[in-house]
Design a protein that fits this description.
There is one protein chain. Helices cover 61% and strands 2% of the residues. With 446 residues, the protein is mainly alpha-helical. Helix 5 runs antiparallel to helix 15. A hairpin with a 2-residue loop joins strand 1 and strand 2. It starts with 7 loop residues before the first helix and ends in a 7-residue tail after the last helix. It has one domain. It has a two-stranded antiparallel sheet with strand order 1-2.
Length: 446
């Protein structure tokens, strides 16, 4: 039974604590490199040495890993830098705090999104709990990986946008622009957050064209501030990497001329690139590298399989301990059904409050459908942001039923039950071969 006078802050505290606990359980295990920590941990170590590196993603997530990781001492990435190599020192645990805290905020941000949809507090509480028990969200937020940062940043951008529209505050619009810039500075897929804002404002403008000045000012503030943040992040990135390093070969000789110890340093026949030219070249190189990336991976998956949780990712293994990036079937399959049902209801015009529901469906589509046009290798974790919006759609639909608290309690309870069942694969706990086989429901899960 929920208390009759349950207030929003009660719900947010409960959701936040439950989310934090699921991520803190067995904290620090394993004390070795997991999955793409191979890359992101090494990038953080490059900042310690000031050695220029190249990555296809913007640098904000790596900068955060470096800054927080440095609180635990110098970041000396272990060698060989392969999955399973033990860590030394404390910096790796500090780096893992960044995704842990941002990942723990995801259910809270979902709750705030539900609040902006004007759902009652008991519905908000029960509706956000399944996000605390999603095995994929929890597993990914325990390691030095950027997805939790990205998902929380996009959700934060969307929530701030809705609050800014409701309160009509220019201070909040400034915050929206800054948050949108942070989102894009983590990964280019963060452009989805900016896309939601611009699409929402365009929709409002088309309904009231006489408010054209407000439309221009809002979009202008958001775009200018977002770009300012994005540009500034790269300038910090360049300032921290003054030396030649493993990423030199990706850049032109003119760019390498600015790196200390480069074979092109001091060559008078090469032009000297300023901050803007270096920024432009870096982004062009990132785009080119993304477009020409032809590497394959045994745990890669195609975009149309993601909502069905078909191909998980094997993160780490040691003896009888394994970690999988695998979605909670109740959360993933239930949210997929919800999206399909909402689309059907809107298509047949059988649903009221179409502004809210259309916004949710559009936000889900903006975070999912662009992957159709990406040819490079992709993974199940690319669906995480769309998943959180699909979950919000599911909560909204259940809130329209005659007994919403019953259905939401059932959803939260079954999510918890399956989370407990799959927990050994989330936390890397010992599991017999028979126990593993019992949790690999499909051959594609192996």
């Amino acid at each position: 039974m929920l208390p009759r006078k349950l207030q929003l802050w009660h719900a947010l505290v409960i959701v936040g604590l439950v989310s934090l606990v699921t991520r803190l359980l067995f904290w620090g295990h394993p004390g070795s490199i997991v999955f793409d920590e191979v890359w992101f941990g090494q990038f953080a170590a490059d900042y310690t040495k000031g050695s220029f590196y190249f990555d296809v993603h913007p640098p904000l997530a790596k900068l955060l890993f470096f800054w927080v990781g440095s609180l635990g001492g110098p970041i000396n990435f272990p060698t060989p830098d392969t999955i399973g190599t033990p860590y030394h020192g404390l910096s790796w645990e500090f780096m893992r705090l960044v995704p842990l805290l941002t990942g723990a905020s995801i259910p809270v941000l979902i709750a705030l999104l539900l609040k902006e949809l004007k759902l009652p507090t008991p519905v908000i509480l029960l509706g956000a709990l399944p996000a605390c028990f999603d095995t994929a969200l929890v597993a990914d937020s325990r390691f030095i990986l950027p997805e939790s940062l990205l998902v929380s940043a996009i959700l934060g951008t969307v929530v701030l946008y809705l609050v800014a529209r409701r309160r009509q505050s220019w201070t909040l619009w400034v915050a929206v622009g800054l948050m949108a810039g942070i989102t894009v500075s983590i990964k280019w897929t963060g452009l989805a957050g900016l896309g939601i804002i611009l699409l929402g404002e365009l929709w409002t403008f088309l309904k009231a064209p006489y408010r054209w000045l407000r439309f221009i000012l809002r979009c202008g503030v958001v775009l200018v501030l977002a770009f300012a943040v994005y540009y500034s992040v790269f300038q910090i990135h360049f300032a921290l990497l003054p030396n030649a390093g493993p990423g030199d070969a990706f850049m032109t000789p003119a760019f390498q001329k600015s790196l200390i110890g480069s074979q092109y340093a001091g060559q008078a026949n090469l032009p000297t690139l300023g901050p803007w030219a270096k920024f432009c070249e870096m982004n062009v190189r990132m785009y080119t590298a993304n477009e020409t990336l032809v590497a394959t991976h045994p745990y890669a998956s195609l975009w149309y399989t993601w909502p069905f949780d078909i191909r998980p990712i094997y993160y780490w293994a040691k003896n009888d301990q394994r970690i999988y990036f695998l979605g909670n079937p109740v959360v993933w399959w239930g949210s997929t059904v919800a999206v399909a049902l909402l689309f059907l209801l809107l298509w047949t015009q059988r649903l009221k409050h179409q502004t809210k529901t259309t916004f949710l469906l559009a936000a889900w589509a903006i975070n999912y459908l662009p992957f159709i046009f990406i040819g490079r290798v992709m993974f199940l974790y690319h669906y995480l942001t769309a998943l959180t919006l699909a979950m919000s759609i599911g909560v909204w639909l259940l809130a329209q039923t005659k007994r919403p608290l019953l259905w939401l309690s059932l959803a939260a309870g079954t999510s918890l039950a399956l989370f407990v069942w799959f927990a050994p694969l989330v936390y890397g706990l010992p599991l017999s071969n028979a126990g593993l086989a019992a949790r690999q429901w499909f051959t594609s899960w192996r």
